[in-house]
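Need tokens for this chain, all 275 residues.
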Amino acid sequence: MTDDPAGAQDPSRLRSGPHAAPGADSPGATPPGGRSPQRAQGRAEADGPLGDARGRDAVPPWLSRLAVAAERMQVPGPLQPPDGTGRPAAVLILFAETEDRGPDLLLIRRSAALRKHAGQPAFPGGAIDAADNGPVRAALREAAEETGIVPASVDVVAVLPELYIWRSDFRVTPVVGWWRTPGPVAPGDPAEIESVHRVPVAELAEPANRMTIRYPGGQGGPAFRASGLLVWGFTALVLDRLLALGGWERPWDAATVTELPPGEQPAGWPAAPGL
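Here are the structure tokens for all 275 residues:
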């Protein structure tokens, strides 16, 4: 799923932890349009056997805690899907863990040759097809096509509330998975996917790798420099929230807004407000 600066005009509203707005990410209630953990688990099972929805007993405790908190997160106003509009889509937020690097997650970089969203880092994902029967199968199918993962190696642990990307009119359902048996990954179609990356969570949480950037329209939003990527837009917004919910967020300078000079603007950078 491609990135987008949608909803980034007020970074404090999109953040948890020390920079959160009052009441953000309260674990006590399900937000409008959200799902309780029980309903999310049932939805994962209803989507069918493409992935493994065995539940949270088979995953690390840190991911179980993150899954519960993420399903209950409040959706910021700019990312709340409007009634009766938007194309259904899903992305896979796939976590794994290694002894030397700790938890990591899977990101792709879009091909620089694409007409839209060229070169952007993103979670694997895309539109939900009728045959997918829901976001879980769609997220796993798209990730398999784009990165080569084996869906049967993934345990689905959470289905998050829908998030709306206004520029592309997508209603995106993030699906959180545990990569039980990691395998090799590679771009499925080099014409669409330039590279696939397992990015350590510790690298994303490093304060020196975090920044608030200003988009051409004047709004600001979180961004990350990690594993040779500049992650921004929708993907950075979701990562920002997950770091806080997972307890990985460290104090960083969110108040200073960085203006990217032309030489540092990534591929796919909006050329003008609203583009």
